[in-house]
């Protein structure tokens, strides 16, 4: 194991998992059975397992249109990206430079990936100056 890795307080990961799930519930009206966050060097990985779907999404999947569900969720995540980025920046004290969200069906889960700016780009508070 690389001893230079930043040690992240598990409480930070747990609090961020709760906040990302709360944002997800607020924006979709549904949540997930379990949310796990891992902060690894310059990345934050968030797994929302046992994803709860809307009735309309279940209908589309049953009609063979699961691709529509994943595409709409992808488009929605792109539109609400700044809200998710802000939560990660507050929790880590680092700027998010990239975000990806992928929804998978059967089993239903979401993985959200946040790429963090290198520490040398960060100001005193962890966020980039200016």
Protein model, in words:
By secondary structure, the chain is of the alpha+beta class. It has one domain. It contains 4 helices and 4 strands; from the N terminus they run αββαααββ. The protein has a 4-stranded antiparallel sheet. α2 packs antiparallel against α3. The longest helix is centred in the first third of the chain and has 19 residues. The chain is elongated. It starts with 9 loop residues before the first helix and ends in a 14-residue tail after the last strand. 22% of the residues are buried.
Short synopsis of the structure:
It is built from four helices and four strands, in the order αββαααββ. It is an alpha+beta fold and 130 residues long.
Round the Cα radius of gyration to an integer and report it: 16 Å
Strand content bin: 25-35%
What percentage of residues falls in helices of 4 or more residues? 40-55%
Number of domains: 1
Give, in order, the helices and strands.
HEEHHHEE
Tag the structure with descriptive keywords.
four-stranded antiparallel sheet, alpha+beta, 4 helices, 4 strands
SSE diagram, text form:
Blueprint: H1 10-28, E1 32-40, E2 43-51, H2 55-62, H3 66-79, H4 81-92, E3 96-104, E4 109-116
Antiparallel strand pairs: 1-2, 2-4, 3-4
């Amino acid at each position: 194991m690389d001893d230079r890795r930043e040690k992240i307080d598990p409480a930070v990961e747990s609090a961020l998992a709760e906040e990302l799930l709360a944002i997800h519930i607020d924006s979709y009206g549904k949540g997930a059975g379990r949310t796990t966050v891992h902060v690894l060097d310059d990345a934050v990985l968030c797994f929302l397992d046992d994803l709860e779907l809307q009735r309309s999404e279940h209908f589309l999947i049953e009609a063979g249109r699961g691709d529509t569900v994943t595409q709409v969720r992808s488009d929605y995540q792109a539109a609400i990206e700044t809200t998710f980025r802000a939560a990660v920046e507050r929790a880590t004290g680092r700027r998010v430079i990239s975000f990806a969200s992928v929804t998978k069906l059967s089993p239903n889960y979401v993985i959200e990936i946040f790429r963090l700016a290198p520490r040398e780009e960060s100001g005193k508070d962890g966020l980039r100056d200016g």
